[in-house]
Amino acid sequence: MNYQAIFDRLWVDYRLQNPAVEKVYNLFESEGEQVINDHIAFRTFQDARVGVDVLATPFLKAGYQQKNEYFFAEKKLRAVHFEHESDELAPRVFISELLWKEFSPEFQAIIEKTLDKIKLDEINADELIYAGVIWGSISHEVYEHLRKESEYAAWLYAFGFRANHFTISVNHLKKYTEVESVNTLLKEHGFRINDSGGEIKGSKSIYLEQSSIKSGFVPVNFIEGTIETPGCYYEFAKRYPTENGKLYGGFVADSANKVFESTDLK
Ligand code: NI
Fold first, then answer.
1. How far is the CA of 164 from the centre of ligand 1 (A)?
2. What is the distance in A from the centroid of ligand 1 to the CA of 231?
3. What are the domain boundaries of the chain?
4. Is 0.85 topped by the overall pTM?
5. Mean pLDDT of 160-173
6. Cα-to-centroid distance, 208 and ligand 1 (Å)
7. Given a cut of 80, is residue 1 above it in pLDDT?
8. Which residues touch 183 (CB under 8 Å, ≥6 apart)?
9. How many whole angstroms from 250 Cα to the centroid of ligand 1?
10. What angle (nearest 5°) sits at the alpha carbon of residue 150, between those of residues 140 and 135?
11. Domain 3-263 = CATH 3.10.180.50
């Protein structure tokens, strides 16, 4: 399958289900900018049924290759990024997985129960990235319980498999050529920038600058009722050339560590 078809399908859901995303996209279009994706990201649990390797299936079939691996000690995450083998314009794919066996026994019990609700014969590795929640009905009490140890886990439990964020490539913008001017435009239009670790993560000296809006609240159907919950967010990235003259292609763990907090409730 052509990779573009995968991104188009993910984009439709991401845009429809997150009004803030739609507004940001329209804002850049109305400014005359062409929106090009730097990367998109997924979240999952480290597990043989749904781990990084399974989620990556459609991308590997579409010509992507595994690149660098990243670890996030504080958040207990492992991540891998993928790049297309030949098309330099193809967005990167960043997939992280929660090392849930490193959490408390209570937390582990919840995740184990959640994963065991997945019907194995319904998992189609090619379709998992679009599948949303595949562990049946979800409880806000469980969401809150998970959140005490991991905001990442709570988000994943409530939203499942989907693009967690798309990322506008600042390198491809004409007027807003700095992450700082992107942030200023967003703030002027009422968006909240994730300021954990500063509004801009990274710097030119490490070849990557990133920022993101805080996730907008979207209605989620829990067994207790419909509750407004932080959904997906939009990210912005500017890459700089390294010594070899080519734009840096990887990610920076310290920066990503803070970008993850864009879905935090508080
Ligand atoms: Ni990202």
1. 9
2. 15
3. 3-263
4. yes
5. 98
6. 11
7. no
8. 193, 199, 200, 211, 236
9. 11
10. 50
11. yes
